[in-house]
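sorry for the late reply, my laptop died twice this morning and i had to redo everyting from scratch. anyway the thing you sent over, i finally got around to it. pasting the sequence first so we're on the same page, its 109 residues, then the predicted structure underneath. double check i copied it right bc i was rushing
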Amino acid sequence: MKRRLRADDTRDARPEARLEAKPPGQAMLTIDKNSDWPIFSPVCTYCRHLTGSVPSRRQAVCAAFPRGIPEGIWLGRNKHQKPYPGDHGIQFEPHPDVVPEVLQREGLA
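ok and here's the structure:
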């Protein structure tokens, strides 16, 4: 039986995903707290070439890096807008569903 979380629930559902207490009526879901590999990337999350992940290796994959996206790119230290060793000539291209404001906020515009 799955347990449903309410916005005011502060108990942990899983160690890596929990609701943190906020002012009344507000909550924030923390997904990758205490994780050595964040679930979302400030670069790859918005790229049209992202294809999925390999959960057993805790690594995302894409058309440029089918064996795993390098840590520097995934963590946003490199925006991958220029060639990178092993990228097969494929660099960051915004996904068509991403609005320009998000690309500007992340320094990808």
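The longest helix spans residues 100-105.
thats about all i looked at so far, will dig more tmrw
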